Amino acid sequence: MKALLFVFTLLSAAWAQSAAGPASDPPPIPNIPDDEVVAIFGDGTKFTMGDFKQIYPILPPAQQQMALRDREAFLHQWELWRKVAKIAELSKLDQESPYKQQIEYARMNVLFPAQINAVMNQVPIEPGEIVKFYDANKRKYSQVKVKAIFIAFSDAASSTGDNGKKALTEAEAKAEATRLLAAIKGGADFVKLAKENSQDETSRAKDGDFATLHYGDNIPNGFRAAVFALKQGEVSEPLKQPNGFYLLRAEEVAVRPLSEVRDEIRNELQLAHADEWMRKMDQETKVQLVNPAFGSHPPAPAVPAGK
Length: 307
What we know:
CATH class of the domain at 139-255: Alpha Beta
Largest sheet: 4 strands, antiparallel
Helix content: 40-55%
Strand content: 5-15%
CATH topology of the domain at 139-255: Chitinase A, domain 3
Shape: extended
């Protein structure tokens, strides 16, 4: 056992040392033909460049870096693992518990997503189907480029804002945002007000330019509804967020072109097909529980008297 732990310690240290090497990018994968043999293992097995290219993507990121930084060390460790694993198989450890169950669990973990992926890739998505989906769901691909004025608030009694002044309460911040909105509707320059009043430093430094928001972005539903109801040039009502109110002006309102979202739509249609297939598999999955005691929930622990 001590020898085994020693070997594992050496392996872990070797991987860690290589992964913690220079911060620079690792060297590229060698430009060698796939069928060219790059190593021969102790049992005579030939290892080709194509073998390396197939193994490399499944390695964890740190091990990928190690494999590129020191390919000779990687080959040595790979052969060591192969060798020890073969000895384990000859000893029939793969047929003993808990190793047998661990191998089966790992096997299912690999094959389950592999089959889902195969189902997705087997679905022929016709060009017309993509166009039809796009036409029926254009709102999903709408986008709005906005400028912003942000008025922060804090209900903490002694908090101060970025300018060193006492922070506004929620009610005060809403009143300030409402005042600015009235000024904008009265003809005041949005950019000027953003520079003078916005507390979002990043957008304030860019004349209020905030972001290009897409309908599918991970934003609160109320925020999304307000933004995507704006026409070009319109300004939103004060939009409350956890730490302040936004006034957003729609600079550009557009729909992403089909050419830009074609692959997204194809992937979404494939995912929908895979989801339908998975639901069917789930409905067809049957288990007969023959011992009710196994499926019953254990009784709740008794509460001691007086508690």
